[in-house]
Design a protein that fits this description.
alpha/beta, 5-stranded parallel beta sheet, 5-stranded mixed beta barrel, binds iron/sulfur cluster
């Protein structure tokens, strides 16, 4: 099958011409061919001019010709940014069947529209970059970043000042990347951002497209679509950085039914409402314990990982004990804790009641002792059960064993399952494969298992 062919018409001034050059360069770099005729193309791009009436007429006429001869047209350039008095786009009013309209200097948006309407199949012989992109993780798991930046202003954090406000990636791009990752052999997809529950807020949950179907730019729709993409590959989808907003209640049934992993990474940071207020945490007004217990009722196998800060400015002994109780009552499966430490530029530095370092460290140690006891008890309760394990390293498996993880453990941050040599030594395992394991012991943060 030949490369997809794009017809291209460039109208207007030299600035429009350089925009055309950028788009054509990108098309060519990605392996698209150009067609000299509308009829010989799979799709046509018209770069328009909207300066004077004659130019507008010429642009609209050219779009009309391309539609008549080809039918699949993307419009870019100055006329694409022009609206009538009633706010409706001039091009879309005259030619409602165009596939997409962008303004000038919009190479990426034009390419997004081309990818959507004329995707180019990956050719391993000529494409230098694999379809899934270049990844630094092992082949069987990958991180999927869905947004950048954050709209919150937690007083201990300087991320928004470095990365700016929340900018969600278009849902079509995110789903296309996920699909390519699954098709390249990824068995576990880890969804990351600064605030996964806020996905799409900045885009007002705008409708996007994947595979020609409309999908809302919103966490629930994203997670449902990821579950659909993962299913034929038998792959896992794991959610990180989810804040305990009421909307998360809608994700729990997807976990209970096994469509995404019943695992939530929720950075609570504290439990006491007054400390959360001083931290200016998202969802600080929510009844976190109540909410979490409700999630556990809906999905008893749910595993919750969280991070906390001990010794935040002004934290009283009573507030700290509130935190210790929370960890026990909420039965946090995996907890990390930092002793508060001032970060240059963070507004928390100006809060009254900075605690001596020795107190902050002592509270961190007390916290970890309590949290580890909760975690150890939960790990022990797994002994005797049979769990599905994703093998991270099959080195020596069959002789000395190997290492894997269950749904309860994210790579790098949680524990692992040390796999003993299987009873049937003829059985072989590969990194990135799933296998059933009988849990025979728990040690520290890890489990010991016997492949069955
Ligand atoms: S800690 Fe707060 S401000 Fe910083 S990235 Fe997370 S939610 Fe945003």
């Amino acid at each position: 099958m030949g490369a997809p062919r794009v017809g291209f018409v460039s109208l207007g001034c030299p600035k429009a011409l350089t925009d055309s050059e950028l788009i054509l360069t990108q098309l060519s770099a990605e392996g698209y061919e150009t067609s000299k005729t509308f009829a010989g193309a799979d799709l046509v791009i018209v770069n328009t001019c909207g300066f004077i009436d004659d130019a507008v007429k010429e642009s609209l006429d050219t779009i009309g010709e391309a539609l008549a001869e080809n039918g699949r047209v993307i419009v870019t350039g100055c006329l694409g940014a022009k609206s009538q008095e009633d706010g409706r786009n001039v091009v879309q009013v005259m030619h409602p069947s165009v596939l997409a309209v962008t303004g000038p200097h919009a190479t990426q948006e034009v390419m997004d529209a081309v990818h959507l309407h004329l995707p180019k199949p990956h050719d391993p012989f000529i494409d230098l970059v694999p379809a899934a992109g270049i990844k630094l993780t092992p082949k069987h798991y990958a991180y999927l970043k869905i947004s950048e930046g954050c709209n919150h202003r937690c007083t201990f954090c300087i991320i928004p000042s470095m990365r700016g406000d929340l900018v969600s990636r278009p849902i079509g791009d995110v789903l296309r990347e996920a699909q390519a990752l699954f098709e390249s052999g990824v068995k576990e997809l880890l969804v990351i951002s600064q605030d996964t529950s806020a996905y799409g807020v900045d885009m007002r949950y705008q409708m996007g497209f994947h595979d020609g179907r409309p999908v809302k730019t919103r966490t629930l729709e994203l997670v449902e679509a990821l579950a659909d993409l993962a299913e034929p590959h038998g792959a896992w989808v794991r959610l990180h950085y989810v804040y305990p907003y009421p909307t998360v209640d809608h994700l729990i049934p997807l976990m209970a039914s096994g469509r995404v992993l019943p695992y939530l990474d929720v950075p609570f940071q504290h439990s006491h409402p007054d400390v959360l207020k001083r931290m200016e945490r998202p969802a600080s007004g929510e009844k976190n314990l109540e909410r979490l217990l409700k999630w556990r009722e809906m999905c008893p196998q749910l595993v919750v990982r969280s991070t906390f800060i001990a010794g935040f400015p002004g934290e009283t002994e009573a507030e700290f004990e509130h935190l210790l109780n929370f960890v026990q009552e909420a039965q946090i499966d995996r907890a990390g804790c930092f002793a508060y430490s001032p970060v240059q530029g963070a507004t928390a530095n100006d809060l009254p009641g900075m605690l001596p370092q020795a107190v902050r460290e002592e509270r961190q140690a007390r916290f970890m002792a309590v949290a580890e006891a909760v975690s150890a008890k939960k790990l022990k309760s797994r002994i005797g059960s049979t769990m599905q394990v994703l093998i991270d390293s099959a080195k020596g498996l069959g002789k000395q064993g190997g290492v894997g993880r269950t749904y309860a453990d994210a790579p790098e941050i949680d524990g692992v399952v040390h796999l003993l040599p299987p009873e049937k030594v003829s059985k072989t395992y590969k990194t990135g494969e799933f296998t059933k394991v009988r849990i025979v012991d728990a040690q520290g943060h890890d489990l010991i298992g016997l492949p069955v």
